[in-house]
């Protein structure tokens, strides 16, 4: 015998049910219903810093009995990785637990802001977060062995633009806007850095020598 038949002669109070929505032990909302009713709009969940939130996964289209539902808070993820172990790409930001990172690479010929043509590996990195829009994130690109840094170029609607970046250990770090970025890296070898330092040192030494030489000559003339 189904519920409708059993409830025909039952007092009204026995045919009514209630959902109680709570968050951190506090009542957020209630919903009174009859057997088989549908709840089309769930109440808003109070925000908690650093967390995403959801109500339990139930069939709200066919409610059958009373219960108390507690909001489920999940701490945001701070980092996602892709392409190998250790990962070639690491992104950091504020992401829900269901967020995913997709990354792919391929050779691309491109022209920089100075009109010079290059062919290099371009990376397409996309963060998908079903709980919230992604507006920005930090990209960490793993440098190859021996690389001491590099220049980051990002593909924009106006063409390829150089992006500020800094070295953090073995990674080159820069900021990306939106939920996706296409970029390439021109790595600088350690020997190139050493050469730059040596040349800079020679220039500085030559300058100091010239100043001292002029000072000595002026003293002799006096």
Portion of residues within helices: 10-25%
Secondary-structure element order, as H and E?
HEEEEEEEEEEEEEEEH
Instruction: Describe the main β-sheet briefly.
Output: 5 strands, antiparallel
Distance between the termini: 122 Å
Total helices: the number is 2
Strand order of the largest sheet: 6-7-10-14-13
Brief digest:
16% of the residues lie in helices and 49% in strands.
How is this structure best described in words?
With about 220 residues, the chain is of the alpha+beta class. It contains 2 helices and 15 strands. The chain has a 5-stranded antiparallel β-sheet, with no helix packed on it. It is elongated. Residues about 190-200 have low confidence and may be disordered.
Write the layout of secondary structure elements.
Layout: H1 3-6, E1 16-23, E2 26-34, E3 51-54, E4 67-70, E5 72-75, E6 77-82, E7 89-95, E8 100-111, E9 117-128, E10 136-142, E11 147-156, E12 159-163, E13 166-168, E14 171-177, E15 180-189, H2 190-221
Parallel strand pairs: 1-4
Antiparallel strand pairs: 1-2, 3-5, 6-7, 7-10, 8-9, 9-15, 10-14, 11-12, 11-15, 13-14
Keywords:
222 residues; five-stranded antiparallel beta sheet; 49% strand
């Amino acid at each position: 015998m189904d519920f409708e038949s059993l409830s025909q002669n039952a007092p009204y109070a026995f045919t009514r049910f209630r959902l109680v929505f709570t968050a951190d032990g506090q009542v957020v909302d209630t919903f009174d219903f009859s057997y088989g009713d549908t709840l089309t709009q769930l109440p808003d969940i109070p925000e908690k810093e650093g967390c995403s939130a959801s109500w339990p996964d139930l069939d709200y289209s066919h409610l059958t009995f009373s219960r108390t539902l507690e909001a489920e808070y999940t701490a945001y993820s701070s980092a996602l990785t892709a392409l190998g172990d250790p990962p070639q790409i690491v992104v950091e930001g504020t992401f829900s637990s269901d967020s995913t990172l997709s990354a792919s690479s391929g050779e691309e010929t491109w022209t920089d802001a100075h009109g010079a043509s290059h062919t290099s590996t371009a990376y397409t990195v996309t963060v998908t977060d079903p709980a919230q829009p992604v507006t920005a994130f930090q990209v960490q690109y793993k440098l190859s062995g021996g690389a001491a840094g590099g220049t980051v170029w990002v593909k924009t609607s106006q063409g390829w633009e150089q992006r500020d970046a800094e070295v953090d250990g073995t990674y080159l770090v820069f900021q990306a806007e939106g939920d996706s970025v296409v970029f390439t890296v021109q790595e600088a070898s350690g020997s190139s850095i050493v050469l730059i330092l040596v040349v800079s040192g020679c220039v500085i030494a030559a300058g100091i020598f010239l100043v001292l030489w002029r000072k000595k000559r002026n003293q002799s003339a006096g």
